[in-house]
Predict the structure of 3-oxoadipate CoA-transferase.
Amino acid sequence: MDKTIGDVAAAAVADIPDGASVMIGGFGGSGAPIELIHALIDRGPRNLTVINNNAGNGRIGIAAMIDAGMVRKIVCSFPKSKDPRAFTEAYLAGRIELELVPQGTLAERIRAGGAGIPAFYTPTSFGTELAAGKPTAEFDGRGYVQERWLKADYALVKAETADRHGNLVYRKAGRNFGPLMCMAAATTIVQATRIVAPGEIDPEQVVTPGIFVKRLVRVETPQQEEDLNRAEAVYP
C-alpha cells in the first residue's frame, strides 16, 4: 500500500480534530517534525493533549502550539528548556495542564502502549510527589510505583528515509521516541527527507515497519528547531 500523500504537510494533518491526543517525536530539536507541527498550527485544532519529551522552546514548534492556545495538557519530562517562555506563561496563567513524567518512565509508558501492556511497575518516583495517588507494591524488598500505558490518537514523527509502504530509517539521535510513538498511536503521520521505492531500503536497516505508519509526506529540507531559535524565529 502506497502511504505517500506528496509534499504538502497540511494534507497529512487535515483530519486531526479538537480534543485529540497527539504524540510528537523529538528530543529537543533532534527528530522534531517541525513542518508537521507548523502545518497543525495552521489548521488550528484546540484542546489537544500533547505527549513529548519537552514542552517547547522559543516561539516555534510545540512552543508555538502553546502560544496559539491549542494545547490543553502536555505530558512531558522537561517542561523547562533554554527558552521556555511559551509553556511558563501558559502554565502560570492556568491555561495548560502539566503531567510531569520521568524520562525513562515516559519512554516505557509509550512502549507499553504500543505493546498492549496496560500497566507496569517501576522504582522511579517511589516515595515522591510524582507517585501520589498511584498504586504501589513491594518486590524483593524494594518499593515500586504502578504506571499506566500511554497511547494517542495521532503521532507526528520525523524520519530520514521511508519507502512508499511506510518502512522507516531514522538519522542518528533523531530516532529517539519515534519508533515507540509509531507503535503507540492509532494514526501515525511521518515526514521523511527521502521517500524511495519499496525494496530500496535494506530490510536489516528498517527500524519502524510500515505496518505502524498511516501517512507519509516528503520534506526534503526539514527545518531544525535550534537553527530557527538562533534566528529568533516566530511561528506563524
